[in-house]
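Structure in, sequence out. Go:
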């Protein structure tokens, strides 16, 4: 008697080998057509084009073009009541379909310690604000901020806060 193939079904199961559970997923042999119940109703599509447009880079993103390239910078690091000022360099490039600008910077501190950071700058079309997240090799926190352009369109200022050891907040 010939053996019949075991039907392949869509499910997740665990296969036990020597006491270890290994997740196993079995794909369906053929994809199923979506049912009428899973199709969006016509009224649910009313804002679809607007939503899709809001996900695309726009004029606010184009303003970030001015950052792209390599720059020498004057760096101010605020540590409590102290301000450390150093020269550094930063590189900016577009990422993720010109939706975000990646910032990579470096400077040398007083004790010849290399200070490096990365940032991701973008514009949130829904909230109509610029956003940033920074991280550096001098700490384990990431800092986030929300920014706006000044009236001239040449200065982008971010505001944010993070917790210091002991719970105090630094802006």
């Amino acid at each position: 008697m010939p053996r019949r193939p075991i039907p392949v079904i869509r499910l997740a199961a665990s296969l036990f080998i020597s006491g270890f559970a290994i997740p196993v997923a079995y794909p369906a042999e053929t994809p199923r057509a979506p049912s009428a119940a899973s199709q969006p109703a016509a009224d649910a599509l009313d804002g679809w084009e607007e939503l899709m447009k809001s996900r695309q880079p726009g004029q606010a993103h184009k303003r970030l073009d001015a950052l792209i390239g390599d720059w020498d910078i004057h760096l101010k690091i605020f540590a409590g009541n102290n301000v450390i000022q150093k020269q550094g360099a930063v590189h900016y490039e577009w990422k993720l379909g010109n939706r975000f600008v990646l910032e990579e910077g470096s400077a040398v501190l007083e004790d010849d310690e290399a200070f490096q950071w990365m940032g991701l700058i973008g514009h949130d079309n829904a909230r109509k604000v610029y956003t940033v997240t920074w991280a550096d090799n001098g700490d384990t926190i990431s800092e986030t901020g929300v920014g706006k352009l000044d009236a001239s369109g040449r200065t982008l200022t971010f505001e944010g806060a993070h917790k210091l050891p002991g719970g105090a907040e630094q802006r």
